Amino acid sequence: MYKTPCSRLSGLVGASVKQKLVQNVPRCSQTARSLLQLHRRDPSNWLTYQHLNFLKRQYVSKNNSELQQRAIPKQAPVLTIVDERDDSVERQVQRISAIDPLITQTVSEDVTSNTQPEISTSKPMTEDAAVQSDSVSSTETPHVNVETDLAREARLEKQWKQLKVDMEELPDVYARLAKIKLTALVVTTAAAGFAMAPVPFDPAMFFVSCLGTGLASCTANSINQYFEVPFDSNMNRTKNRPLVRGQISPLHAVSFALACGVPGVALLTLVVNPLTGFLGALNIFLYTCCYTPLKRLSISNTWVGAAVGAIPPVMGWTAATGCLEPGALLLGGFLYCWQFPHFNALSWNLREDYSRGGYRMMSVTHPGMCKRVALRHSLGLIGLSSLAPVLDVTTWTFPVISLPINLYLSFLAFRFYRKGDRSSARQLFFCSLWHLPMLLLLALTCKKPRRDPEAAALPAAALAS
C-alpha cells in the first residue's frame, strides 16, 4: 500500500534534481569559459621560451625601435633610511650617546628647574633621558647606506640598458666575429689550390676567388657564433667573443653575416664559375647547419669539420680550372688529414672548457680514439705526399723533401699517443701550425710543369711540314 506514494515521491525528487542539473550546466560551461579566457588574458601563466634553461641567460627585445639587452636580474641593494626619532626604533635599539659635560650640565639644570618636589625620584630620571635623546636625535642626521660607485655600476650593469655600438671598436668587433685568423687560413689554402692548378695564372680571377672565399668564411663564422652564444659564455676560450660580451646585438651579427655571404657567393657564382659558387654555399651550409649542431650531439662533428676545412683548396682549384680534377681532391685530402692532429691536440688541452660548454669532442668522451685518430692521419700525410707525383700534380722531388716534416709530425703524434699529456699535445699543436704552410709551399715549388697545348702543337706542325 506504500508503493504508489513512494514512487511519486522518488519521481518528484528525481525531477527536481534533474531540473537543477540542467540549470547548472550553462553556469559550469560559462565558468570554464571564463577560466580559459582569464588564462589567455594573463600572459604570466603561458609557457614561453623563458622557461627553457638554455635561453635564460640573455634576452633581446625591441622597444621604441631600439634594441635592448638584459641579463638575469639579481637582487639589487636597496637604500634604507632609518629615522632615529621613531619611537619604535628607539625601543628596539638602545643608543649609547657620547658623554659631553656641557650638554649634561645644561640638561640637568633645565630638568631640576622644571621638576616639582612632590614627584618621585624616578620621574626626573625619565625626563632627563627623554631630553637627552631629543637633543642627540636633533643633532645627528638619519643614517643612510651610501652606495659606492663600483656597486652602482655593478647594479646598473644587471638592469635593462640600451645597447650602444662604439663605432671605433666596430672593425675589431667584425674581425673577431669573422674569426679573422681562421678566415686568413681558409683564404691561404684556397690561394694554394688556385696556384697549384695546371693553368696559366690569372691575377684578376685569383683576387676575386680569394675575396669570395673570404666573405663566405666570414659568413659561416658569424652564424656559428650567433648559434653558440649561450654555450660560449661558459667557456674561458670563447667568453670574450663580441656576442657573449654584448658588444653588438644578434640582429647586427646576422646582418653582418648576410652582408658578407650574399655578395661572396654571388662573386664566386657569377664572376668565377657556378661550381665554385656551389662549393662556397655548400661549405657555409655544412659549417652552420651540420657542424655547429653536431658539436653538442656526437663526436662525428670532428669529421664533418675536417670536410669543411678540406673544401677551400678545392674551391681554389675549381676557380682556376672550372672543373673538379684528382689534383683538387689531393689538396683537399692534405687539409682533411692535417686537421685531425691539429684539432685533436688543441682540444686535448681544452677538455675542461669543452665539457663545461656541453660539447661532445673526442678528447672529452673518447680520449683513446682522439690520440689514435691524430696518429693515423699524421701517417696518412706521408701517403698523400707520395701520391702527388702519381697524379701529375708535383714532381717526384716533393715526396722526398716533404718526408722530414711529415716524419716529424708523425713522431710528435706518436708521442702524443703514448703519453697523452698536455706537453705532448701542445708540441703537436704548435708543430701543426707551421707544418701546413710548409707542406703547401713545398708542393708549390715542386709543381709539375704542364705544357700548353698550343705550344706543343707548333713543333708537331713544323715536323709535318
Report what the structure shows:
The protein has 465 residues and is mainly alpha-helical. The chain contains 21 helices and 5 strands. Helix 7 crosses helix 13 (301-321) and helix 17 packs antiparallel against helix 19. It is globular, with a radius of gyration of 40 Å.
Sequence of strands across the biggest β-sheet: 1-2-5
pLDDT < 50 stretches: 1-6, 47-72, 78-90, 114-126, 455-465
Task: Give the oligomeric state.
Answer: single chain
Strand content: under 5%
Mean of residue pLDDT values: 76
- Residue share in helices? 55-70%
Structural class: mainly alpha
Radius of gyration: 40 Å
Number of strands: 5
- What is the succession of H and E elements? HEEEHHHEHEHHHHHHHHHHHHHHHH
Provide a compact summary of the structure.
Helices cover 69% and strands 4% of the residues. It is built from 21 helices and five strands.
Supply the key terms.
mainly alpha; two-stranded antiparallel ribbon; 5 strands; disordered N terminus
Write the layout of secondary structure elements.
Elements: H1 3-41, E1 58-63, E2 66-71, E3 81-82, H2 87-92, H3 101-114, H4 122-139, E4 143-144, H5 149-157, E5 161-162, H6 170-177, H7 180-196, H8 203-227, H9 229-232, H10 242-245, H11 250-272, H12 274-294, H13 301-321, H14 326-348, H15 351-357, H16 362-365, H17 367-387, H18 397-401, H19 403-419, H20 422-445, H21 453-464
Antiparallel strand pairs: 1-2, 2-5, 3-4
